[in-house]
């Protein structure tokens, strides 16, 4: 019986962690959120702020982040039509996660590579 409880406790942690990683994992999602969060609101600004990302990948990731309600695509109906992106309030819940990952990454670099 004790083993079954440990198994359930483990799954209670694994499932939500897996869900979170499904939304924010990958090479580009967090950098995109960070880029928009610091003020890069136009497609080209976001692309230029993230070295190595292609327009095709950026477009796909923006759609995915919008679907998960982390960013919002804003269409301004002037001529020519302007499109900008902003971070949704819900994405602010990722701020502590991002800073924790940053701190961990800095410490990991020190430990493994003996550098910052």
Please describe what this structure looks like.
With 116 residues, the chain is mostly helical. It has a single domain (2-113), classed as Winged helix-like DNA-binding domain superfamily/Winged helix DNA-binding domain (Arc Repressor Mutant, subunit A), CATH 1.10.10.10. It is 61% helix and 10% strand. It has 5 helices and 2 strands, in the order H-H-H-H-E-E-H. The chain has helices at residues 2-24, 29-37, 43-49, 55-67, 95-113; strands at residues 71-76, 82-87. Strands 1-2 form a two-stranded antiparallel sheet. The chain starts with a helix and ends with a helix. The mean pLDDT is 90.
- How does the helix and strand content classify structurally? mainly alpha
Identify the CATH class. Mainly Alpha
Low-confidence stretches: none
Provide the CATH superfamily. Answer: Winged helix-like DNA-binding domain superfamily/Winged helix DNA-binding domain
What is the third-level CATH name, the topology? Arc Repressor Mutant, subunit A
List keywords for this structure.
2 strands, mainly alpha, single chain, two-stranded antiparallel ribbon, Arc Repressor Mutant, subunit A, globular, 5 helices, 116 residues
């Amino acid at each position: 019986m004790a083993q079954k409880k440990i198994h359930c406790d483990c799954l209670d942690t694994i499932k939500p962690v897996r869900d979170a990683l499904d939304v924010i994992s990958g090479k580009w999602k967090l950098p995109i959120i960070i880029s928009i969060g610091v003020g890069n609101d136009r497609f080209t600004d976001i692309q230029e702020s993230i070295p190595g990302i292609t327009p095709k990948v950026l477009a796909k990731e923006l759609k995915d982040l919008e679907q998960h309600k982390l960013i919002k695509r804003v269409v301004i109906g002037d001529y020519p039509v302007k499109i900008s992106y902003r971070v949704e309030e819900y994405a602010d819940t990722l701020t502590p996660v991002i800073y924790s990952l940053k701190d961990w990454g800095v410490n990991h670099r020190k430990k493994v590579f003996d550098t910052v």
